[in-house]
Design brief:
The complex is a heterodimer of chains A (about 375) and B (about 400). Chain A has 15 helices and 12 strands. Chain A has about 375 residues and is an alpha+beta fold. Chain A folds into 2 domains: about 170 residues, no CATH class; about 180 residues, no CATH class. In chain A, helix 13 runs antiparallel to helix 14. Chain B contains 12 helices and 12 strands. Classes of the chains: A alpha+beta (about 375), B alpha+beta (about 400).
Chain lengths: ~375, ~400
């Protein structure tokens, strides 16, 4: 009990120094939390993927289409439960900086395959009934102030022209990791228009989404699909949704690695700041430690004093930092909304924060403790300031 | 009377551990600050070098990149006969009708696939890009399944090296040459004969038309005319502008990340410096009293402590810059979100960045030291002498 009181009193002997150090730790924990959140936002697509879904695309690359006639052949493969298909539309809403993902999909099977997009039954019916209908995620609709029945015009970049849609539904995410900034419309609408303006590009789809009956069939089904279309004009590449999303992440891996590295640099910086504070504190108190030793307190007691103070400061800073992370992450997420549709602070991030603070607190105390324990009583008492 | 510079300097020397810790904290911040500036500079340099001011890229209206664009043979032929197109020394027009598609290739080592640009080139393509030079082998013969690969492709992708073959479009393509594209985006591309590639990918249309203007100032007139032409559905851009737009998102991302990181980091470092300086002042209360008693002015004491803090900042700045300069050896290759293809760029250190980083470190030192220095200068002589 005495020890805790001693630590507490010691901590606030230099109010200014301690509060500055706490502030520094809070800022750095905040930065660390934000960086980890950016990294996890990068993996949001991977996290949201289901083990029951496969993605089939042209084996050359994503920009090459597949004939829509593959659908029936795919459905005949055992283990396949649903087949849906679609195109990355790449339309621009008013200006290029208003970026959001927009897809032309076969609506019925798509909604069956993605139960995490929650749509009320009457909105779903309205969406399926109208060929020009579109649905948007709640975040997206709020951002642009769209309401049901609004007409939305997208300028096509891959498919030329201005495309008109009527908003018939606003979906909500079932999970926290569900992307609520997407926009879907009928593939038939795209295809029928293409038949008129660019007949060569009609009846082709960008990707197939396949729902399988059991997750452990994934590999078998993928091989079966790819071998069905081997040596055709459009060979396929089928992988699990997770692998598909990971492919995207790995292409921009350099940035993820850089951010991770920076997040470690942050920790080193704070380690230095706290070590410095602790080193100065211990240097000033060498005389006191010598007195404690004279009174018969052992090295462990002094070690506990220094470690306790260091960890106490780190804990307070960490707590303030974590509390601040949430509002700041919100602001940050809104600013970078076009890059990171899903931006929320994960529980693991908080765990990392705490672990980092503990590590910093412990490391900072090592050198001062070593010095304080090693010093001989006579030297300690003789030393001034 | 002024307190000698050496006083501040020796004080730092005496408290080596604290000085090193504080300066290295600042050094890390300056390192991150400089690295971010270098990265942005490197990206910018790559973009500027990739395009050339006199060249014009023509793509389909409303498409944002060559990959999305399509220009049919008839439209390409109309563009070829425009009077603004320059002539080369061989009497041919300096105009290339090109095909640009993405294919995914596995990387060496990890086998992870990444998207790579394949460009179908015609006779003038190389002439239009003086920054691209053949480093090894020869250019592909027209009408054959031969390709040349950029240096960064040859190094990093399976089957991209000299004499190796790549399989795509139901054919095997032999790499007959490696080109050196210097610090440009072309280094991450593969080039082959446009007509062969159009066959292989079953795409009957070109992606873009690139040409050199005979008179660089004629661009505005040319753009206005062809974009009004009812036979054409195209858009013309200067090559430089085109490549800059391609990486707008990436540049913006780097800027936002860089700015927020720098602000947060520098706050941390300033606080670190402040802690150090406050305790320096507190430890030396006696000394300050003595200095004052000897007749040194308040301003001189303020100056001495501020100088100490500035030296700390400067030391940190130099160390940070020194470490950051090694970043120039690194190449960042990542996917450009806008084009979906690989983009490789390096960190690049300029004098502007050196000045900025040093100024930044001095400002950090100043901000960290100013409050403690003010406190030191306002001490009462008698109280200061009695303390400690």
């Amino acid at each position: 009990m005495h020890l805790l009181r001693f630590i507490y009193k010691n901590t606030f002997r230099h109010t200014l120094r301690t509060s500055l150090t706490i502030l520094g730790i809070a800022i750095v924990i905040l930065a660390f939390g934000l960086l980890r959140t950016v990294v996890s936002a990068w993996y949001a697509g991977v996290e949201a993927s289901s083990v029951n879904r496969l993605v089939t695309r042209n084996s050359i690359s994503l920009v090459f289409p597949l004939p829509v006639s593959y659908k029936e052949k795919m459905r005949q493969i055992s283990g396949v439960q649903f087949v849906s298909y679609g195109n990355w539309f790449g339309g621009i809403y008013i200006d290029e900086k208003n970026f959001f993902a927009n897809f032309a999909v076969e609506p019925k099977s798509y909604l069956e395959l993605y139960p995490e997009y929650v749509l009320s039954p009457d909105q779903e019916a309205a969406f399926l009934r109208d060929r020009k209908a579109a649905i948007a995620g709640e975040k997206l609709a709020t951002k642009y102030g769209w309401e049901l029945g609004d007409t939305i015009i997208l300028k096509g970049t891959i498919f030329p022209g201005n495309w008109e849609f009527v908003l018939r539904g606003i979906y909500r995410g079932r999970d926290k990791s569900t992307d609520e900034t997407q926009f879907f419309f009928h593939w038939d609408y795209l295809n029928e228009t293409l038949k008129k303006i660019l007949p060569l590009r009609a009846d082709q789809t960008g990707f197939y989404l396949i729902g399988i009956t059991r997750p452990d069939l994934a590999e078998e089904v993928a091989i079966a699909i790819d071998s069905t279309f081997k040596n055709s004009l459009a060979e396929t590449l089928t992988e699990t949704e997770k692998a598909f999303q990971l492919g995207f992440v790995s292409m921009s891996e350099a940035i993820v690695v850089a951010i991770q590295m920076v997040s470690f640099v942050v920790i080193i910086i704070i380690m230095i700041v706290l070590s410095n504070t602790m080193a100065m504190t211990a240097r000033e108190r060498i005389g006191e430690y010598a007195i404690l030793k004279t009174l018969g307190f052992g090295g462990w007691y002094i070690a506990a004093l220094i470690f306790g103070e260091s960890l106490f400061i780190a804990t307070i800073g960490c707590a303030i930092g974590i509390i601040c992370t949430f509002p700041v992450a919100k602001v940050f997420g809104n600013t970078l909304g076009t890059y990171f549709p899903v931006f929320h602070v994960a529980a693991t991030t908080i765990c990392f924060d705490i672990a980092a603070a503990f590590l910093v607190g412990a490391t900072a105390a090592i050198i001062p403790t070593w010095r304080a324990i090693r010093i001989r009583i006579a030297d300690g008492l003789r030393r001034i300031g | 009377m002024k307190i000698p510079f050496l006083y501040s300097f020796r004080n730092l020397l005496t408290r080596r551990l604290t000085t090193t810790l504080t300066a290295s904290g600042m050094a890390l911040v300056v390192f991150v600050f400089a690295s971010i500036l270098m990265l942005a500079e490197g990206l910018q340099k790559t973009l500027v070098n990739t395009g050339s001011y006199n060249n014009v890229v023509v793509i389909r209206k409303a498409s944002t990149s060559e990959v999305q664009s399509s220009i049919d043979r008839q439209q390409a032929a109309i563009l070829e006969t425009q009077p603004e197109v320059a002539f080369g020394t061989n009497g041919r027009r300096l105009l290339a009708k090109e095909l640009v598609v993405l294919i995914s290739l596995p990387k060496r080592g990890s086998s992870k696939p990444s998207n790579v640009v394949i460009r179908g080139i015609s006779g003038s393509s190389l002439l239009l890009r003086p920054q691209v030079k053949l480093a090894e082998g020869r250019m592909p013969r027209p009408g054959s399944s031969e390709i040349v690969a950029g240096q960064s492709i040859a190094k990093r992708f399976k089957g991209g090296g000299m004499g190796e073959t790549l399989r795509f479009g139901m054919r095997d393509w032999m790499v007959v040459g490696i080109f050196d594209a210097g610090n440009t985006g072309f280094g991450s591309e593969i080039w082959g004969d446009v007509d062969q590639l159009m066959q292989a990918f079953r795409r009957p249309v070109y992606s873009s038309v690139l040409f050199q203007l005979s008179d660089p100032s004629a661009f505005t007139k040319f753009k206005a005319r062809i974009e009004r032409d009812p036979r054409l559905t195209v858009e013309a851009k200067r090559e430089i502008i085109y490549y800059e737009e391609q990486s707008k998102m990436m540049a913006k991302f780097l800027r936002i990340m860089g700015l927020s990181l720098t602000i947060i980091f520098s706050l941390g470092a300033i606080i670190g410096a402040m802690v150090t300086m406050y305790s320096t002042v507190a430890n030396r209360t006696n000394e300050i009293g003595t200095l004052r008693a000897l007749g040194f002015q308040r301003v001189s004491i303020l100056g001495a402590f501020l100088m100490e803090s500035l030296i700390l900042g400067f030391l940190g700045g130099c160390a940070g810059l020194f470490c950051a300069s090694f970043m120039q050896l690194l190449t960042i290759s990542t996917m450009n979100f806008q084009t979906f293809s690989e983009l490789a760029f390096t960190f690049s250190l300029t004098f502007g960045i050196i000045y900025k980083s040093l100024a930044f470190s001095l400002i950090m030192g100043f901000l960290g030291g100013v409050l403690p220095a003010v406190r030191s200068s306002r001490m009462n002589i008698v109280n200061a002498l009695r303390a400690g």
